[in-house]
Amino acid sequence: MTIERPTFSSHEPSTSPQIGRRGLLCGLAAVPAATALASATLHASPAATPDPVFAAIEVHRTANAAHHAAIIKLNRLQKLHRFDGNFEEITGKACDDENEAFEVLIGAPATTLQGLVAKLDYLRAIADSDEAWMLDEREGGARLLIDSITESLRNVGVLS
């Protein structure tokens, strides 16, 4: 008695899902990172002090709102009074404050995984908004951000 086994030619489509070599290698490459993140999350002790990234996000959010308010005020003055004065008097300080707050934000390393995720979420929201230029046009900003993320990963135990 013989057991019949189906044979498939290489030209016949397979009905069962298969993981190709590339998919398997990609999945295996993700294992160490996933393990490190899980380990950092499970073994992280609560920080004695709050992650400074949360404060940096709030400072930037406040400075951004103040800068937008100053721009709206300038636009209103220009429309109502044909303002031809020095716009720096109205928007200058708010603009400088926002620029400084943004520089601090992108340079601030997170001390917790939650802080790192919050920072990345906040920066993603900026990148997806009309404010994306803040990430695209600042000289040295990309390097500062990369360095802060690298240090953040060391702080939370993902990198050594």
Automatic annotation (TrEMBL):
InterPro entries: TAT_signal. This is Uncharacterized protein.
